[in-house]
Amino acid sequence: MAKEMIAMLLAGGQGSRLYALTKKLAKPAVPFGGKYRIIDFPLSNCINSGIDTVGILTQYQPLVLNEYIGNGQPWDLDRLHGGVHVLPPYQQASGSDWYKGTANAIYQNLSFIERYDPQYVIILSGDQICKQDYSDFLRFHKEKGAEFSVAVMEVPWEDASRFGLMVADEDDRITEFQEKPKNPKSNLASMGIYIFNWDILRKYLEEDKADPDSENDFGNNIIPNLLRDKRKMYAYHFDGYWKDVGTISSLWEANMEVLDPEHSGINLFDDDWKIYSRNSGMTGHRISAEAVVENSMITDGCRIKGHVKHSVLFAGVRVEEGAVVEDAVVMGGTVIQAGAVVKHCIVAEKAVIGEKAVVGGMPSEKEKGVATVGPGIHIGNNAKIGPCAMVEHDVKDGEEQW
């Protein structure tokens, strides 16, 4: 059975700007929002939009990501015909190779797309936080008679030079593409989410493969080639929540925005557009009588005896008596021991913050950073970690890092 549209999800990113958080973890597998991982968002968008066939292209540190995806059951993607398929690079008759770029990754999986003979293919990013109805995007693509459409968001003009920009006419037809220009002609930033007619996608991927000078990238090669040939290209305006969480600061900010859904635009409590995730299997959380919890997200298996304010705690976090956690993102299985103070920081999975240790704090205007403790790190008793420190090794009792 042919599918009207299938999704190809690019999930092989290294996420090097997340430093310790992605040292052994693919960026799409990074925990987010208390009970999710980043990849939960595009997968949930797919099933909520009626897309039941998703190819997930993995490459960097795929073990945890592959294990998490499993057979796709949490997102109702465990299908006999379609469903979710993990697509790592593999050896072919012409030799084996890593995915060289975004376009090359899709090219190496043309045979997967051909199995379903779709009319349309949507290309998604596995490293963004976004709630989007792809069926509305497809409706726009059809109404315009487009061969290629890209989702765009208006960004402040002063930030426009940081993005790939689409210049479009009054009918939303794309007339020019600018990649991070010094003098932007538009403030329509590409979200890196594309819909192609299948025959057009195949044609341009095959031509790109045959070009020895190509970088095999959608932004640098495929889109300019479509413009060169005057293809029917349109910009779809998206006005919902979208954030590239590619840096420590942006990841921390997005987690904090989860706690203020009325103003931030990201509502994880929306029953009409649920974000699905794999269940931790832990018991319910427990908040002791002496604990104080204010405006925070406390998830499965947490045990709280201290003071938690404006923070996101993932499954199995323990905050002992007298400990203070404020403006923090604390990932699964971490222990904050008695009397410790954890503020304005990200603490990765299965870390231990020793008794009366101090981690993070509000940085000065010059510093502008977020303290980060890597996975499995032990911060010793009475240790002090500065507001912008990146901790990737155990810290001894009383030691300081700034």
From TrEMBL:
List ligand-binding residues for alpha-D-glucose 1-phosphate.
Answer: Y99, G164, E179, K180, S190
Give the enzyme's main class according to its UniProt record, as a single word. transferase
Q: Does the keyword Heme apply?
A: no
Q: What InterPro entries does this protein map onto?
A: ADP-Glc_PPase, ADP_Glu_pyroP_CS, GlgC_bac, GlmU/GlgC-like_hexapep, NTP_transferase_dom, Nucleotide-diphossugar_trans, Trimer_LpxA-like_sf
Mention any Pfam family matching this sequence. NTP_transferase
Q: Which residues form the Nucleotidyl transferase domain?
A: 7-259
Domain of life of the native organism: Bacteria
Q: Where is this site: Could play a key role in the communication between the regulatory and the substrate sites?
A: Q59, W98
Which reaction does this enzyme catalyse, per its entry?
A: alpha-D-glucose 1-phosphate + ATP + H(+) = ADP-alpha-D-glucose + diphosphate
Protein role = Involved in the biosynthesis of ADP-glucose, a building block required for the elongation reactions to produce glycogen. Catalyzes the reaction between ATP and alpha-D-glucose 1-phosphate (G1P) to produce pyrophosphate and ADP-Glc.
Assembly behavior:
Homotetramer.
Q: What family, per the record?
A: Belongs to the bacterial/plant glucose-1-phosphate adenylyltransferase family.
Report the protein name in the record: Glucose-1-phosphate adenylyltransferase
Source organism of the structure: Blautia hansenii (Ruminococcus hansenii)
